[in-house]
Amino acid sequence: MRKQVTCAETFSVHGTMVLPQDANQYGMMYGGQLLKDVDNAASMSGIQFCRCPGVTGAVDNLNFLRGFPVGNHAITESYVSGCGTRSMEIFIKIIGENPETGERYLGAMGFVTFVATPKDTEDFELPEIVPETEEEKLVCAGYAERQADRQALRKRNQALSAQLTTDYRHLTF
After folding, report:
1. Rounded to 10 degrees, what is the CA torsion of 153, 154, 159, 163?
2. How far is Cα 129 from Cα 141, in angstroms, rounded to an integer?
3. Residue 42 forms beta bridges with which residues?
4. pTM of the model
């Protein structure tokens, strides 16, 4: 029987304060800085789930809903929300918090694909993910549809990438 792991067992949380060096000219956290936090959280959740090394396969979707101003906190939460044979989908949400008022808001959310890279692949099997809370059940319920969308997009991207050039001589610098 396939081992079961709860979403809570893959839960990762990381908080950071938005500092001036993390911000753009508008005083908001750089998207790239946020992506770094997202990738770190996703890898932690993925490794907690598969208990082996792995790599980020894709940032499937990341929606920026509200900015993170300098001085605010950006709290990144993640957990596994679905899996295949080697890959897993990790749900990410980033909660902003104004430390002076205590106001909290959903600043960003999305999904990352993480791929297990076990040393011994012969008997490797990902566990089954088990949602428990209402949020986890809601997020996990959409996994099959998101996975089908990802596979269709992957095929389109493979067809496109086969026609792209790596010749940069046509560019003017």
Report:
1. 100
2. 11
3. none
4. 0.90
H/E/C letters for each residue in 114-133?
EEECCCCCCCCCCCEEECCC
For residues 62 and 16, what is the distance between their CA atoms, to the nearest angstrom?
18
- Cα dihedral: 15, 135, 61, 29 (round 10): -30
Longest dimension (CA), the chain: 59
Q: Which tokens hold the place of 64?
A: 């920026």
- Residue 98 CA, chain-centre distance (Å), reads 23
State how beta strands 87-97 and 104-116 pair: antiparallel
3-class DSSP state of 13: strand
Per-residue pLDDT tens listing for the chain (173 residues): 779 999 999 999 999 999 999 999 999 999 999 999 999 999 999 999 999 999 999 999 999 999 999 999 999 999 999 999 999 999 999 999 999 999 999 999 999 999 999 988 888 999 999 999 999 999 999 999 999 999 999 999 999 999 998 887 766 66
Both ends of the chain: CA-CA distance in Å?
A: 59
